[in-house]
Write a structure and sequence with these properties.
The structure is a single chain. With 257 residues, the protein is an alpha/beta fold. Helix content is 34%, strand content 23%. Strands 1, 4, 5, 6, 7 and 13 form a six-stranded mixed β-sheet that branches. A five-stranded mixed β-sheet has the order 10-9-11-8-12, with helices on both faces. A hairpin with a 5-residue loop joins strand 2 and strand 3. Helix 2 packs across helix 9. The longest helix is centred in the last third of the chain and has 17 residues. It is elongated.
């Protein structure tokens, strides 16, 4: 790699936590982020980070952390970026730099019958995971028929056991799990747009997180990400990780209130 580094001209000039390296705070959340025992990183966010590192002659150094600690690593200057399907939210933008949107985290509907419309959830026992954008509106729409779960695993178990008829969760995590033998007999569809659930119309945009005061690095991230979009590479990265390439159609940058 030393020879490569000498022949390499970085696309942008900026400073990182450790010169010549891109330190990535990462946790296990496939298909968005994963790290193997030998320090190889994988997943959509990781592939994006690798492309940016390569364009800027940087070596990737993963730091495997607990999801709750990931953001703190960036804020405290121990990592350059955090990966793992982080939403661009107003609250987060107060303390962190949020990159240009990388992809949409699409709302998925999980059912035996291949339901894709919000209308078809009415009158059914539906389960979803706490913390997603659609939860409040689904609660208003479905009332007591909506069961909240702390994580996707608990929801998947109840869906398999028939304790809920339909699940609503991230399309991406389900598509990945299914490709690896999960959700047998369940069809996972991207939710069709419905005015009653805004997340079905305007899915959350995900970003790479970085230190707010490192503006030059933020500008380099944004430029690298926009280039991946323009070349069609972003859609290819999603597809290579088992996701719908339409998730790359992010639209204008926006923040979740």
């Amino acid at each position: 790699t030393t020879a490569l580094a000498q022949d390499c001209t970085p696309a942008h000039e900026f400073t990182t936590v450790e010169a010549g390296k891109l330190t990535v705070a990462i946790y296990e959340y496939p298909p968005f982020s994963s790290v193997s025992a030998d320090g190889q990183i994988g997943g959509v966010d990781s592939d994006i980070a690798k492309a940016i590192a390569e364009a800027n002659c940087l070596e990737i150094v993963p730091v495997s952390v607990d999801p709750a600690a990931t953001i703190q690593y960036v804020i405290s200057g121990k990592a350059d970026i955090a990966v793992g399907d982080w939403y661009r939210t107003e609250e987060r933008s107060k303390v962190l730099g949020l990159s240009y949107p990388i992809y949409l985290d699409q709302m998925g509907i999980y059912s035996k019958d291949g339901v894709s419309k919000v209308e078809d959830l009415i009158g059914k026992k539906v389960g979803t995971v706490s913390g997603f954008l659609w939860v409040t509106e689904l609660q208003a729409l479905l009332g007591d028929n909506l069961q909240l779960y702390p994580n996707p695993v608990a929801l998947a178990q109840d869906l398999a056991a028939g304790r809920v008829e339909i699940g609503v969760d991230s399309y991406g995590t389900g598509a990945y799990a299914q490709a690896n033998g999960g959700y047998e007999g369940i069809q996972i569809k991207v939710a069709e747009p419905d005015d009653r659930v805004q997340a079905s119309i305007q899915a959350a945009q995900s970003a790479l997180l970085y230190a707010k005061d490192n503006a030059a690095f933020g500008a380099a991230l944004d430029a690298g990400i926009q280039e991946l979009h323009a070349s069609g590479k972003m859609g290819e990265i999603l597809q290579a990780n088992g996701l719908d390439p339409s998730g790359a159609d992010v639209g204008e940058p926006r923040l979740v209130k």
